[in-house]
Specification:
By secondary structure, the chain is α/β, with parallel strands linked by helices. Helix 1 runs parallel beside helix 2. A four-stranded mixed sheet has the order 22-23-1-24. It has a four-stranded mixed sheet with strand order 2-15-17-16. The longest helix is centred in the middle third of the chain and has 14 residues. It is built from 14 helices and 24 strands. The chain folds into two domains: about 200 residues, UDP-n-acetylglucosamine1-carboxyvinyl-transferase, Chain; about 200 residues, Enolpyruvate transferase domain (UDP-n-acetylglucosamine1-carboxyvinyl-transferase, Chain, Alpha-beta prism), CATH 3.65.10.10. The protein is elongated. Helix content is about 35%, strand content about 25%. The site of uridine-diphosphate-N-acetylglucosamine has 19 residues, from helix 1, helix 5 and helix 6.
């Protein structure tokens, strides 16, 4: 079992290049299945979730290999339409392959993804979108079997689910005729998926707004695309430096995708300036409590940045109320932060953080990806040494966390 050993309390200073976005590259890798030609995905991060996606593509009969920072996928002749249990379990977001497999192969078999560390993660909206396009969905002994020749349709999502929007887009590209997706998620990763689909010759527009239109059935071809920088990794490094003190420049990320996060960090007392593809942050004394932080679909405050921000504010001064509106069980990091001396009270979706001025080091365990990152943030700002276990969660979303933090002067090593 590996662990991070972190000696906290050192100010950080330097610049970090942000790697490609996990939440962009996963649907983009699924989209590669739609093109009967080679796709080159540049800025493809080295993450365990990416490896799981490549394994799914290979299982489906595609060529998928890494070439430096790029990945090349050739889906000229897929041979299968199922995602085995083992791979579904390895990466819960593998449900994103549903629309692409069904669209390309006319049928798809996936085991139903179970609940997860963030609480139940239903896929009813994904399935409603498939049904709206004319696909049938049958449950067969714990697995889902979908089939049908898809036709363009009006899809109205009852809430702007990121994954359901992406699945609907991928299926709609293969459907004959026009599809409109209303109440679509507006996340930047959806704009990135649209950019990739356009590079393959698909006729998709509207991503970034609440209505996405797809003219399906146009012939696709291979293409090359560069994945956007990971805004949540950038948010993690900004909060790490906010917690530990010092200054940092994160590059390779569009500052506009992080404006709600940087606004809160400013309110907490940090000095933040932004250029087109970079953000600079300097701390000016201990962090102060801020007005309530409510997670919301984009462009609201991202749920994925809630835990790292909470970790930073827990070691600051003053009180902050968090309201987690996106997932039911997204406060599992709180008990671990309390081991480090944090004063946090949770009541349902609300967490009240009373800053204790400084956390202390402790042995703690990551129980999910962003919660794990939050423990690293807390440990960097804490007095003394911490050990963080459960690194397989963190490795799902951070390509080089310890290396990047070491470059900023942090004392962090994997043992
Ligand atoms: C994506 C991100 C994840 C992020 C989340 C919210 C990826 C790989 N993951 O997850 O990092 O935290 O967006 O920004 O991109 N829901 C339903 N029925 C459905 C689908 C979703 O009720 O069929 C609910 C979920 O339970 C949740 C809410 O909708 O409460 C938002 O989920 P969704 O936007 O779908 O998140 P993911 O796509 O799973």
């Amino acid at each position: 079992m590996s662990a991070y050993v972190i000696a906290g309390g050192r100010a950080l200073d330097g610049s970090v290049q942000i790697h490609g976005a996990k939440n962009s590259v996963l649907p983009i890798l699924a989209a590669c299945l739609l093109a009967p030609g080679a796709c080159v995905i540049q800025n493809c991060p080295r993450l365990s979730d990416v490896e799981a996606s490549l394994a799914i593509l290979r299982h489906l009969g595609c060529r998928a290999e890494r070439q430096g920072e790029a990945v090349v996928v050739d889906a000229s002749a897929p041979t299968r339409f199922d995602v085995p249990d083992r791979l579904m379990r390895e990466m819960r977001s593998s449900v994103i392959f549903l629309g692409a497999i069904l669209g390309r192969m006319g049928q798809a078999r996936l085991c139903a993804p179970g609940g997860c560390e963030l609480g139940p993660r239903p896929i009813d909206l994904h399935l409603a979108a498939i049904r709206a396009l004319g696909g049938t969905v049958e449950e067969q002994g714990g697995s889902l079997f979908c089939q049908g020749q898809l036709q363009g349709a009006d899809i109205v999502l009852s809430l702007p689910s990121v994954g359901a929007t992406e699945n609907a887009m991928l299926a709609a590209v293969c459907a004959q005729g026009t599809t409109t997706i209303t109440n679509a998620a507006r996340e930047p990763e959806i704009v990135d998926l649209q950019g990739f689909l356009q590079a393959l010759g698909a006729n998709v527009r509207g991503a970034g707004s609440s209505v996405i239109t797809v003219e399906g059935g146009t012939p696709l071809h291979g293409g090359s695309y560069r994945v956007m920088g990971d805004r949540i990794v950038a948010a993690t490094y900004l909060t790490a430096v906010a917690a530990a003190g010092g200054s940092v420049e994160v590059t390779g990320v569009d500052w506009r995708t992080l404006s709600t996060v940087t606004a809160v960090l400013k309110e907490a007392g940090c000095q933040v300036t932004s250029g087109a593809d970079r953000i600079f942050l300097r701390t000016e004394g201990p962090l102060k409590g801020v007005r309530p932080v409510r997670t919301a679909p984009y462009p609201g405050f991202p749920t994925d940045a809630q835990a790292p921000l909470m970790a930073a504010l827990a070691g600051g001064t003053g009180c902050t109320v968090f309201v987690e509106n996106m997932f039911e069980s997204r406060y599992r990091h709180v008990d671990e932060l309390i081991r480090m001396g944090a004063d946090i009270r949770v009541e349902g979706r609300v967490a009240v953080v009373y800053g204790v001025s400084r956390l202390h080091g402790a042995p703690v365990m990551a129980t999910d990806l962003r919660g794990g990152a939050a423990l690293v943030v807390a440990a960097l700002g804490a007095e003394g040494s911490s050990t963080v276990t459960g690194l397989h969660h963190i490795d799902r979303g951070y390509q080089s966390l310890e290396y990047d933090l070491q470059c900023l002067g942090a004392s962090i090593r994997r043992v």
